[in-house]
């Protein structure tokens, strides 16, 4: 009798969880095809950072620069393959979110403590950078197409960008933004093509210098580290891989990893087409005189550079939504499971509005500084997850320790900043992780309200 009661409770809990999953943004629609995976990954990975690769190459030099670009491409492809495989490594269960994989490895509570703060920092931080980048691209476009118009402050262009996100934030799930993501992927390929074609057309400049800019060894060393950060930033996107795969249907006969991997291969071919020509031809054309944004160095023809800046703005609109969808999913999960709110469409609308509004509200004086700090500290989605490598040996991780440990080790081998304080909270602290709802609520308040 007791066994039947337990089975009934388990079935009821599973039914309730399935009902929640059918409502949440990440898992409410699972009818994506392999090409959805392709352009979602292109949108998430290929960002405006590709335009800084010629500058990174100028600080690395020909040999080390090309070697690091190729090595980063191979390592990130390998680690992304590992994440695709881990999505369904437990029979009958899908790890639809990054923190669910962390919970399987480190335990229900400790996994959230480790993953959720870092993932929120990454997703909110990247969206802050994208909001500033989108505003700057719109401002540059305005200056190029209307040079005689009155000057408009950058903060107003950021507000225009935020207004677009305010509307797009009402879309209910990941598949509903597929059209936006496809447009963003096309735009990323377009402005990358403009950058390398314009560089090739300009030709190798007279008196081009391929030496290091820095006059001292110390300066050259720190420029080298900064360039590593630029390269690492350009290979972002792993932070939302599991969420993208969650939109693909899966059966025992046709697991989701097959179409997902097919899309990833196509996406990485696009990444190679975007990254290598821009980096190599941009550096070959201008040498160490190249700016940290290749479009700033090109300047002419004006109409082409204006178009490229508009393409950048459209691309980061789509990228913003890819990363924001994970934040929406976390907040809605918190409201449904912890506060027992049965959210209807108007609550979801309010959540999307408040999220975009409060990110925008802080941008006027802080976002530009924060974007600069993130870049100079070499902080990117891969670097922020680096501390997980040091705690992958706890007892809760034994079953998948080798897979996860190897993944994190390879994935972060290009990082220049080690995670300080990564040795805290081992298995002794696992049983002491209390008041988790308070932690999640405070994170939501810190990032999205105050």
UniProtKB/TrEMBL annotation:
Q: Where in the cell is it found?
A: Membrane
Query: What keywords are annotated for this sequence in UniProt?
Result: Amino-acid transport, Membrane, Transmembrane, Transmembrane helix, Transport
Signal peptide extent: none
Q: What is its main location?
A: membrane
Q: Which InterPro entries match?
A: AA_transpt_TM (IPR013057)
Q: Report if keyword Transport is assigned.
A: yes
One GO biological process from the UniProt record? amino acid transport
TM annotation in the entry: 34-53, 60-81, 110-133, 154-171, 177-198, 264-284, 304-323
Q: Which Gene3D superfamilies match?
A: Amino acid/polyamine transporter I
Q: What protein does this entry describe?
A: Amino acid transporter transmembrane domain-containing protein
